[in-house]
Amino acid sequence: AADKIRLIPQDFFAELCEQIIQHLNHKIPGINTAELCQRIQTSGVDINIGDLAKVANTLSFLFSTAARNNLSTEELVTSLGSGVSTLPKHAVQVIRHVWNEQGKAIAVSEDATTTATVGQFVDMKWKLGVAMSSDTCRSLKYPYVTVTLTVADPSGQITDKSFEMTIPQFKNFVRQFKEMASVLETV
């Protein structure tokens, strides 16, 4: 991961660290690596989303481990310097600053609650469509609903999951959501 961190400009690296800290503090549901990767690529840096996700996972592990062990800023920086592959100076400076500013908040939240092992629902979008025709069928006129769920996995990576349903399937889907809502109102 150290080789990939060298590629990331300091301002983007700082933004990534900030998002990870916010995620670990349960202030945001996850890190949108796809959007951040696109912005980094637009700035002229050749990095792919898989490499950026690895860097995010490494930093998330670093910060959460430091929080669990209640490391001070100096202890964290010292442990970073003793690694096999050393991080670039700008990365260590950013990690030092972010941990110094917000590290204690993670330590408190990590002690208070255990990290969830399932993803977190972030958003849902849907749209109604009609298939008019295809190569094999001249006249379909078949309505369908496309649903896109935005989910943050336990590491904080945000992904979209899309699927299509027939109108009866969508009605059943909505009915189940209404049942969940009524049960939640009783809690």
TrEMBL record:
What sequence ranges are listed for the domain COMM? 120-187
TM regions (residue ranges): none
Q: Which GO terms describe its molecular function?
A: NF-kappaB binding
Q: What Pfam families has UniProt attached to this entry? A: COMM_domain
Write out the similarity annotation: Belongs to the COMM domain-containing protein 6 family.
Q: What is the protein's known function?
A: Scaffold protein in the commander complex that is essential for endosomal recycling of transmembrane cargos; the commander complex is composed of the CCC subcomplex and the retriever subcomplex. May modulate activity of cullin-RING E3 ubiquitin ligase (CRL) complexes. Down-regulates activation of NF-kappa-B. Inhibits TNF-induced NFKB1 activation.
Protein name, as recorded: COMM domain-containing protein 6
Q: Which organism is it from?
A: Melospiza melodia
